[in-house]
Design a protein that fits this description.
- The chain has 317 residues and is α/β, with parallel strands linked by helices.
- The protein has two domains: 6-120 and 245-313, FAD/NAD(P)-binding domain (3-Layer(bba) Sandwich); 123-241, FAD/NAD(P)-binding domain.
- Helices cover 24% and strands 30% of the residues.
- The protein contains seven helices and 19 strands.
- The strands form five sheets. Strands 1, 2, 5, 6, 7, 8 and 19 form a seven-stranded mixed beta sheet that branches. Strands 10-17-11-12-13 form a five-stranded parallel beta sheet, covered by helices on one side. The chain has a three-stranded antiparallel beta sheet with strand order 14-15-16, with no helix packed on it.
- The longest helix has 23 residues, at 291-313.
- Bound molecules: NADP nicotinamide-adenine-dinucleotide phosphate (NAP).
- NADP nicotinamide-adenine-dinucleotide phosphate binds at residues 51, 124, 156-162, 164, 181-182, 186, 208, 242-245, 289-290.
Length: 317
């Protein structure tokens, strides 16, 4: 049986993957997007996105991702639910190709790949974190915030995500304590302003969490002040951890150049070090991780992949 060879396979269906799919499909490349869960990625778990241009009153992460998915599907993007487990390089009649094997033992072949696998929330790595996950310890305010109506919670982190989520959690919690390891926050100034205006939020600065405490559920966190070296316990019913992300690049480890943190290094046209592999979104090395940046990179990645495939086929304009 003749196997299908895609021009472009996109791995990952967040903002980057869906935008790459839109552009690849508009170029009439034979394209497949493989996503292991629901298309939309981490953005699905953001309550309100206030900085995506064109939505002056903000838009929920869910609505923005539905729009992106619908726009790509409307022009015929093929999306499949599967989890790619390995990638190898083969020679096809058309030239070099990539063979993908999946968890469902399915195989896919493509002349080019766009890696848009995003990133995963980083864990604290302290005692109690594993034990209390799902029992008061969470990495998602939108998913679990409503469980803490009238209760006390702590939020760990000092970046955009931690500050945004701390403010969001005050919709439910009676008190939110933001614990950050420095004396000032990393988050965007507009988010810090919202935090300062909110009298349900307390700050616990220069401090790190040393353990999560509880019985069957979280009952508190132990923190250490890095200046005084003194420890204390903050009693709470929930702990939310937002301390950054780790790129999901293990699929292409050893195949393309990664930086010391595991982000894929590309040129300005989104080409990775292995010809035929392109990357965009949170898995790609850069200094600003935003949905709008991911979308821009994805448009470029799709265009560069298109040019690459047309070069292989001898159909370049
Ligand atoms: P981030 O910007 O990398 O911030 C992570 C925060 O966690 C930093 O304040 C860091 O402290 C702290 N941290 C890291 N490891 C820690 C540890 N082991 N213990 C305690 N604290 C630790 O990550 P993020 O806030 O999760 O956001 C991820 C990306 O998404 C960012 O690029 C962000 O800009 C973007 N984002 C944007 C928006 C928005 O535009 N509205 C919303 C959410 C996320 P230090 O400051 O000391 O390093």
């Amino acid at each position: 049986m003749k196997k299908d060879i895609y021009d472009i396979i996109i791995i990952g269906g967040g903002p980057a993957g869906l935008t790459a799919g839109l552009y690849a499909q508009r170029a009439r490349m034979k394209t497949l997007l493989i996503e292991k869960a629901l298309p939309g990625g981490q953005a699905l778990l953001t309550e309100t996105i206030e900085n995506y241009p064109g939505f002056p009153d903000g838009i929920t992460g869910h609505d923005l991702m539905e729009r992106m998915k619908n726009q790509a599907c409307k022009i015929g993007l093929e999306i499949t639910t599967d989890s790619v487990t390995a990638i190898s390089i083969e020679n096809e009649k058309e030239g070099k190709a990539f063979r993908l094997v999946s968890e469902d033992a399915r195989e896919y072949t493509a002349l080019s790949l766009i890696i848009a696998t995003g990133a995963t929330w980083r864990h604290l790595g302290v005692p109690g974190e594993d034990k209390f996950q799902g029992r008061g310890l969470s990495y998602c305010g939108v998913c679990d915030g409503p469980l803490f109506k009238g209760k006390k919670v702590v939020v760990v982190g000092g970046g955009d995500k931690a500050v945004e989520e701390a403010v969001y959690l005050t919709k439910f919690a009676s008190e939110v304590t933001l614990i950050h390891r420095r004396d000032r926050l990393r988050a965007a100034k507009i988010l810090q302003e919202a935090l300062k205006k909110n009298n349900k939020i307390k700050l616990c600065l220069n401090s790190v969490v040393t353990s999560i405490e509880g019985d069957k559920m979280v009952r508190g966190v132990k923190v250490k002040n890095l200046k005084s070296e003194k420890g204390k316990e903050i009693s709470c019913d929930g702990a939310f951890v937002f301390i950054g992300i780790t790129p999901n690049s293990s699929l292409v480890k050893g195949m393309v150049k990664l930086d010391e943190k595991g982000y894929i290094v590309t040129d300005g046209d989104m080409a990775a070090s292995e010809p035929g592999i392109f990357a965009c979104g949170d898995v790609r090395k850069k200094t600003l991780q935003q949905i709008v940046v991911a979308a821009g990179e994805a448009a470029q990645a799709a265009f560069t992949a298109q040019r690459y495939v047309e070069g292989l086929k001898g159909t370049a304009y």
